[in-house]
Amino acid sequence: MPGAYLWAWDETNDKYIKVLVDDTGRLLTVASIDELDDIGDVYVPTPTDEYFLYWDAPNARWACRALVDADIPAAIARDTEVTTAISTHTAIAAAHHAVFTTTEHTAIGNGAPHHAEAHTLASHSTKAHSELTGVGTSDHHVRYADSEALAAAVQAGAITDAVTKAPTHDAVYDVKATADAAIAKALLTERGSVIYRNATIPAELLHGTAGQVLQSGGHGADPSWLTPTSNVITITFIIDGGGSAITTGQKGHLEIPFACTLTAWTLAADVAGAIVIDVWKDTYANFPPTDADAMPGAGKEPTIAATNQKAQDTDISDWTTVAIAAGDILAFNVDSCTTITRVTLSLKATKT
What we know:
The chain is an alpha+beta fold.
């Protein structure tokens, strides 16, 4: 830097000197000082050990002072809480183990610390239970000789022979029962499910719906749930005029011992003609049923139109009521009849 002034330390004379760099790069001594404080913008009248130099912006000069906590960045500073905690820990003598001298270690034995190890059987010479302080013989199991252990196992039923060590049937069964229980617990995820073997491994068949039954698929096929067709039943009532055309009025009663829902009806007569039959329903307590207890509703009664011999309705959901409770009694009333002398009424129903 030709023409620039620099301050340099003169180790020989223990002072700062002011030097000038000329155009050829030579250093020329311009002035010398005995103290750093002699430089114009430096104010360090009485520096001591561990002081540091810093720029004093308000006074536009260099100054020095001792290091304080505020000069240390917060990320690395030790705060008051940590300092206090360290002091507190150091003051608690009970928080530290005792320090033994070499002589004390040697007196204990082998010159080694004897904390937890001294309380294990491994640290004792004979490994005897009696060497444990404060523990009696009744606090430990009985030590068996080989012959005694074999005899005890035979007596307990774990093995059948002290020589062959063959397991008993009961022991084998216990192992199998434990394994079966573990398999069932692992496979079954819902109440009501069953376990079956598929093509390769045991598997779970989830529960079916209420009323379904388990159906085998035969050899080489998986089982499945089936809705029984037996839930569909037929209630049959026959009206016979004794060789003459059937007259009007009630022709008999039937008790229905199960709950069900009527779904269809069929009429079949001995000859062509016409007939209308109403179906009444009431409880046993209110027997007999009357016209006020009619199930079909006006104009929906089972009917064979004139000159026909049969009739059928496969959807009677439009009846006033189709539900029958267990124990209800049905009455069959002929509203009108022409020519027909014998007729069979079949009511199809589903058990509920």
